[in-house]
């Protein structure tokens, strides 16, 4: 999930389960991406309520407060730093995210299967699914897919050949990675990585 600034507006990008392409003419965007599972406690809204949505922050928080924050970003020398400061200020006042979720993200990011991760964490798969909906906006299997894709893209961006990136991230082969990239991002692998 992201806190975004564009053309004088503060927006929240909820968790996506499909590609998102902004409509209208190109715009300048600045944003802060929250660590998986942390945004709901900072924003005060379960992630599943924002799944596949872009909403004005004023729809979630009092309008006067959002106006003050918008003025703060607008007058800042660097909008990205101002957004980060806003997120850090909010984090200092919010309740800490569920520590189990941080361990879940770490284990899934290491490629551990969902069922093994649930057993390791001492929770049932249904309980884990419910907690994931609140924290991430989707279930643990979707989270695992997204984390695996991020691992593969990081490897490819670092210069690892696509086929090796796919295997090291946990895909069967490069074509499996390519299908997943297209399904989750709406773009071919080479285009997403700027190579084609």
From TrEMBL:
Entries under InterPro entries matching the protein: AraC_XylS_family_regulators, HTH_AraC
Pfam families registered for this protein in UniProt: HTH_18
Record keywords: DNA-binding, Transcription, Transcription regulation
Keyword Transcription: yes
Recorded superkingdom: Bacteria
HTH araC/xylS-type domain boundaries: 98-195
Gene3D superfamilies: Homeodomain-like
SMART domains, A to Z: HTH_ARAC (SM00342)
Gene Ontology molecular function: DNA-binding transcription factor activity; sequence-specific DNA binding
PROSITE patterns assigned to the protein according to its UniProt record, in alphabetical order: HTH_ARAC_FAMILY_2
Transmembrane segments: none
PANTHER family according to UniProt: BLL1074 PROTEIN, HTH-TYPE TRANSCRIPTIONAL ACTIVATOR RHAS-RELATED
Protein name in the entry: AraC family transcriptional regulator
Organism annotation: Streptomyces yokosukanensis
Lineage: Bacteria, Bacillati, Actinomycetota, Actinomycetes, Kitasatosporales
